[in-house]
Structures
1.
Amino acid sequence: MLKKFSFIIPLLILGIFFSGKDSFATKGDKDSKNDKKVITACDGMTQVVLNDVGKNEVMTREKAQEVASMLLATYQQQKKYQSTKFTRRDSLIWDRELKAMIEEGYKWFHDPSLGTNGISCDMCHPDAADTHPETYPKFQIQLKKIALLRDMINWCIENPMEGKPLKEDDPRMKAMEAYIIWARANQDPRPHAKILNPGRR
Ligand code: HEC
């Protein structure tokens, strides 16, 4: 099966050993790498160098599927090893960052300054009650469209709180989404509502 992919040189880059993309080398020929298509998997580490695809080429569906499968197979082989290189210090840092973001969301959720009339989210949704983040996307009658969680957050800002909607990439929006999802996942006894451990893959 793997022979089918022999035209691809799978190259696993482990962040711990290599400081950056520049230390990536294909059999000692550093310059040739620049002309080749290199695709990185979603872990940010696993890579394949394609010898038979141009740098800016859009692959056919068949070829793209082969490359995707190759990347995935390489990632799965290495996953076990990768997860062991995270230290306790890493987990503590991730834990702290997650906590900070959730706390930021908690703060905005309790802050009437998102609106103009003194009302804040928690007054109607104590502990993020009835926010049902796991039910999105879904059709919301009042919006007359399929809504994402952020659309409902904005709807509630604009209506009961008489405020201005937040941009989708507004850090306050992201933090509130994080808080709502985290709060519900940690209170909801249903099996799909998992606790979000930091760094979980
Ligand atoms: C005055 C009370 C009130 C305030 C304040 C309020 N909401 Fe709501 N919110 C509601 C009600 C009532 C609904 C139910 C609407 C529905 O499901 O059709 C709702 C629905 C929601 C939903 C969707 C729930 C679902 O079942 O899909 C989310 C998410 C939400 N609110 C988040 C927020 C956030 C975030 C804030 C603050 C920015 C906020 N709400 C402020 C009353 C409020």
2.
Amino acid sequence: MPENYTKILKKEDRDLFELLPGYACNANCRFCSIDPAKRNVNNSTKELLKTIYDAKKDGFKYLGIGGGEPTIRKDLQFLINFAKQLKFDIVRIETNGIALSRPDYCKHLVESGLDFVKISIHSRKAKIHDYLVNVPGAFKNILKAIENLQKLKVRIEINTVINKYNYKEYPQFVDFFSQMGIGSFCFIYPLYTGRMADNWREVGINIKKAAPYLEETFNLIDELELDKGIVFNIPPCCLSGHEDKMVESSPFNTKVGAPDITVESIDFDRIKNKTKLKRCQRCRYFQNCEGVWNSYSNLFGDSEFQPIYEKPK
Ligand code: SF4
């Protein structure tokens, strides 16, 4: 385990509090990693206000509100406003963007204090995006949402889940959205749990197959001098030379508060679901690598993870 991970975040490391108000959602993504049985597990407003208050008292600087889908909650504006009054430096939501196609709704969220939106987009092609999230018209709504948020000068970052339907088109995807003025991209290699575990043969893709396209995409992001390109859940041996893009290269310093679980340190917690292989001991990344997700190697095997001996050029 990287030596700077602690079970409970030290006071000075408390950066992001990720609040998951519940698991209800208005989409049905084929790669969703949440157990569908949890969809009706949701916190009350009173419980969430207490969690937000405690997070601020504990010293967290930023508040993220995710889910499930936060925009289907009637109290979202109220929660954002409460967090802003407590003086979190940044309040952001993580959303599928469908509800943000309504200009008046975006305006109300921003007036409540919303600073930043992470919006989930999985293709630049409407047909593919709508198929993946299982909602006809979702992509059209996202384009409207981007327009609405940009008019309100809200910071936008794109989250995208790497899968069989989109991995080859990522350079074109970045090109398309960067031309719309978005410069921040977060590539998430999915966890093979929930619906993703059921659909892995149809939607899943080997990390090694996706890696060359991600490399090309990161090179483009650097070439275009965009703000940010990061990737979650890929070990360094599969993207050697792009360690600066890997979220796990440095502590994420995040606590998660969900209706059914509290994770004191996301960095520390995820290690228990990963394994280092015997051959990993010979790898130059051994000390800092967290290993391979068990849910991945149970399905795809582990032969693609091979030690890297040389320093990348
Ligand atoms: S070979 Fe093992 S230690 Fe090296 S990067 Fe891959 S998973 Fe990590």
